[in-house]
Amino acid sequence: MEEKIDFEVSIFEKKRSWYELALAAVLFSIFIYLLIYVIYSCCFDTSVVIITKRLRGLIIIGGFCIAYGLKFSMTKNMLIDLDTSIIVSRYVVGPFSYDVNSKVTEFEYVSFFKNKLDCYGTNLWYVKNKHYKMYDFNNKEAAYQFALDISNKLNIDLLDATEKGNFVWIEKENLK
């Protein structure tokens, strides 16, 4: 029997909207149709040229369908266990999940910044120059609030790196 691990910090991404899930279902269905079509044609066609063209189509169109189907249906959850200093990134697609564990020695600070796509990202920094990329946000206030919540829960510093070359440490005592 597996032992249950209690995480001090659990961050769950919101559920996907119905139209994203519907689009993902259509893309997955196209991939399954193409796969069945290629298998069927491999059984009954003897022409190597036709089979090669259909396999190439499966790889190109099927790869596109799988990639975007996963993009529209996947959510990322983040779990932090302070006792064992483990960050678990859990990627969930329907009933299936995949965990990526990252061992961390000591958390240093949380930063939020503006990236090249005019979105705001958040990073959790540990051991000098190593960091864990957490989430991206559309506006600065959401990124700031998320980074502030994480820094309060982990009791670490907060860095505003939204302006290039002008990093500002935010004093949390003034915010309470």
Beta-strand residue fraction: 25-35%
Mean pLDDT equals 84
Q: Which radius of gyration do the C-alpha atoms yield?
A: 22 Å
Low-confidence stretches: none
In spatial order, strands of the major sheet run 7-6-5-8-9
| Count of DSSP-assigned helices | 3
Q: Count up the domains.
A: 2
- The chain-level structural class is alpha+beta
Overall form = elongated
- SSE pattern: EHHEEEEEEHEE
Total strand segments: 9
Main β sheet profile: 5 strands, mixed
Q: What is the helix content?
A: 25-40%
CA-to-CA gap between the ends? 43 Å
Task: Describe the overall structure.
The model has no long low-confidence stretch (mean pLDDT 84). Helix 1 (18-44) runs antiparallel to helix 2. This protein is of the alpha+beta class. The strands form 2 sheets. It has a 5-stranded mixed sheet with strand order 7-6-5-8-9, with helices on one face. It starts with 8 loop residues before the first strand and ends in a 6-residue tail after the last strand. It folds into 2 domains: 18-73; 104-176. It has helices at residues 18-44, 48-73, 140-154; strands spanning 9-12, 75-81, 86-93, 96-103, 107-114, 120-126, 130-137, 157-161, 168-170. The longest helix has 27 residues, at 18-44. The radius of gyration is 22 Å and the shape is elongated.
